[in-house]
Structure formats: structure tokens, C-alpha cells
Amino acid sequence: MDKAYYTYRIQVVSRERVRVTKLNSEQQVLANVPPSDLRYQEKLEPLTGLVKKAQENALNSPQKIRELGEILFDVLFDVSLCQDFVDFYYEIVQGKKQFLRVELDVDEQILPDLAVLPWEFMCLPARENKGEIWLATDPNLIFSRHSTRWKLPPSIQLGKDEKLKIALVVAMPPDLDEFSYAPVQAALEALASEQAEHIELLPIVTQADRKSINVVLEEKPHIFHFIGHGQLEDEQGRKVGQLALVDKSLEQAEWIDASQFSGLLAQYRPAIVVLQACEGGASSASEAFAGVASKIVQQNIAVVVAMQYLVPINIANQFELSFYEQLAKGLPVDVAAQGGRNAIALGTSQYKKRNFATPVIFMQGDDGYLFQRAGVEVESVTPEKVMQVVANIKVKILQGGSLTGIDMTNNPPTSGSFQSDLVVDQGTDANITGVKM
Q1: What are 407-420's pLDDT values in tens digits?
Q2: What is the pLDDT of residues 53-85, one digit of tens each?
Q3: What are the φ/ψ torsions at residue 211 (nearest 5 degrees)?
Q4: CB proximity list for 197: less than 8 A, separation 6 or greater
Q5: Residue 90 to residues 6, 166, 237: CA-CA distances in angstroms?
Q6: Is the per-residue pLDDT at 433 higher than 50?
Q7: 3-state SS assignment for residue 134
Q8: What digits encode the pLDDT tens for the residues 104-143?
Q9: Pair 98, 141: CB distance under 8 Å
């Protein structure tokens, strides 16, 4: 592609040390940076309070959002490593006009408390006076949670006219609270209709048990999107994430852990798994989903996307619409995720709420090209293209004046529509020119 990947790989090797490797566009080592200090213990007290506020959705000021982002940055980057990162960023992004991937590798088996931190908030401290760099939304960067300890899954060969198959699977056991998945279904159906030549939405599974999941997986979907309940359970002194399937014989929830869930995916292994906690659930549910996600990617699933916090359904739709649309067009999966987070950050909530840092991508591989299509030239990826993608999503929302769905933010109704956050700025956003690709 015209825009190449350079990589800044950060591995947290212990509670005291960080190791960084810089790679060129051919994934050859440019430099192994001398190990630097991890300042977790030094920053633990202020970090703990801010992380708790983020979990409780009480971090609703730009000052607190930035404070959390800067502290997380300072945990990983001591003074010398900060300078090294900034120099490499400007060399690659401004000098070479290429993409910079930032891969964060934290072994959750060894460092579980570090692995669960919301690293997507990270931003370059203002004290550096070197511009705005939010690692998870900067269109020149691609930020992901990464694992280098497992065999890389192969890319999937698509026929020239083969469609990208999406399976939407919903588990709503009768003994747990009901929730609405209609907005997600509507968004996927609209996307499949608009891009009928690229996307196929498989029949939706609404009461998912083991058997029905196996049936839909027999259709070999490329993307498996699961919505349901989650919980955290104590297991030998550790919090372990569990997801609820439907036990149809007992008419109740069957709680399964990450290993059991991964086992369901083992025979017909999708390239991408998207995990979404039902809106209205406990805040711990989203933590459970994020924990399960990091486990699933270890089962040789190429990419797992999860929401580390519960978000309004319009925010989830906004991310997913951008994410799926760009995958269908052949963009790398990590670029699609970065563009989705950027789209959220460009909305009215911007960096005033936790929404932009909610989508987390766990992945393996040297690049994000999961799907190789025979006889089709892959589009080049540029920061301008990412911005065009975001503008296109905003125009789609603005043209309709509203985005069909259900507003679950207050007293959930059973039907209706909500106004997108982006529509609030209609006077400004209406002038954006989108490029339909």
C-alpha cells in the first residue's frame, strides 16, 4: 500500500520495566530501545482514583480525561522513552508520511492489573508542548493491544466477488434482564443493504445457546458479533469474566468463561470476534467482556474487538458502522478500529467523556490486512482517507437528521428513535463533505 506501517512495539516485561522495539515497513528491527522504567507504582494512587471514576462514568470533564490520559502515558513512557517516541512519531508521520502502529503487549497472566488498565485514554502530556497526540484516535497512528506469543493466524482468501459475512448473535436468557439489540440489528441491516455487493448479514440468532452458535458458525462467517450479559466471578482470588448463553432446557442462563466460549469458535474460526455487553447491565459486565476478549485472541483468533465500558447505543452504532463499512472496502482492521474511535472523538462528546476510549482492539499479526481478495487491488490507506471515512459517516447521519435506533440512556423505551450526538452540531457538521467509497 502507499502508506506503510512502521511499528513502535511496547512490551511490559515486569512491574518495573518496559522494552521497546522499533520496526520498519518490512517488519525488520530498526532499533531495540534500552529498557526503561515502568512507573506504575509511582503513579498508582492517582491512577486508581481516575480509573475508578472512568468505570463509574464519573469522569465527565476534559481536564480529568486528559489527566487520566497523561498519567497512563507517564506509566509507560519515562522521560527518555517519551522523547524517543515523539522523535519516532514525527520522523515517520511527518518526515516519511507513513503510518505508525503502536502495539502494547501486556501479559495478563503475569500482570493482570496492568492488562486491564484503560490504555486507550493515553495522550501526550501537554507539558511536552509538542502538539495533540491521543494514541487511540490520532488518524496518523494505529493503537492496539497486541500479543506476540502466539502463532499468527493466516489471512483469509476471499474470492473476487465473495461477500464479507457477518453473524449477529444475541443471548438473552429469560432469567436475566431484557435488553434491546434492535438498534445494532437495524444498523447492520442498513449497512448490508447499502453495501449489498460487499456484505452479507447472516440470519440473526436471537436466543443463543451452544447449538445455535454452532449452526451459524457452520456458515463460516468472517465476523462473529456477540451481544449479551457478562459478569465477573472470583476464581482463586482473581476476577474472571463470564458470558451468559441460554440454557433452553432449564430456561435460564448458562454462564461460560473465556476458554469455554473460545471452544465454541474453534472448529469454524472467524477472523474477527466482536463482543458487546448489553446496554443497561452492570458496569462490571463490560469489564467481563474485555477480559474475555483478551483471552479469545490467545486462541488464535486474529482480532477481537470489545467495549471496555458500557456506552449509549448510538455510540456503539457509530463505531460499528464505521468499522464494518471500512472492513468491507478492504481497509486493515486496526485502521478501521482507529477510524471508528476517531469518529467518536469528533462527535460532540469529543474528549469530554470516556466514549472515545471505549472500543478496544486485541490483535495478532504484522498488519491488519485479514482478508485478501483475489483479483482486487487493495486501496491505499492515508490519514486523509481515514478523515474522509469519518466525514462520510457524519454526513450519513446528518442527511437523515437522526439515526434509527433506541435511546437507552434514560428510562429505556421499547421503540422510537434518538438523535445522534453528531446532529447536535448540525450547523457546523452539515458543511462537511463526505466521500462515499
Answers
A1: 333 333 333 333 33
A2: 998 889 888 999 999 999 999 999 999 999 999
A3: -65, -50
A4: 161, 163
A5: 12, 38, 44
A6: no
A7: strand
A8: 999 888 898 899 899 999 999 999 998 899 999 999 999 9
A9: no
The grid cell for 253 is 442462563
Cα–Cα distance between 431 and 338 in angstroms, integer? 24
Place of cell 473465556: 258
156-429 maps to which CATH number? 3.40.50
What is the total residue count of the chain? 437
Which three cell numbers mark 293?
476478549
pTM for the model:
0.81
Q: Strand 141-146 relative to strand 238-247: parallel, antiparallel, unpaired? A: unpaired
The 3-class SS string of 232-284 reads EEEECCEEEEEEEEEECCCCEEEEEEHHHHHHHHCCCCCCEEEEEECCCCCHH
* CA–CA gap between residue 424 and residue 434 (Å, rounded): 18
Domain residue limits, the chain = 5-135, 156-429
Long-range contacts made by residues 421-424, C-beta under 8 angstroms, separation at least 24?
421/314, 421/315, 421/318, 421/347, 421/348, 421/349, 422/318, 422/346, 422/347, 422/348, 422/394, 422/397, 422/398, 423/397, 423/398, 424/348
**33: part of which helix (H) or strand (E)?**
strand 29-37
Task: For residue 30, give the H/E element and its range.
Answer: strand 29-37
Cα–Cα distance measured from residue 163 to residue 154, given in angstroms and rounded to the nearest whole number: 18
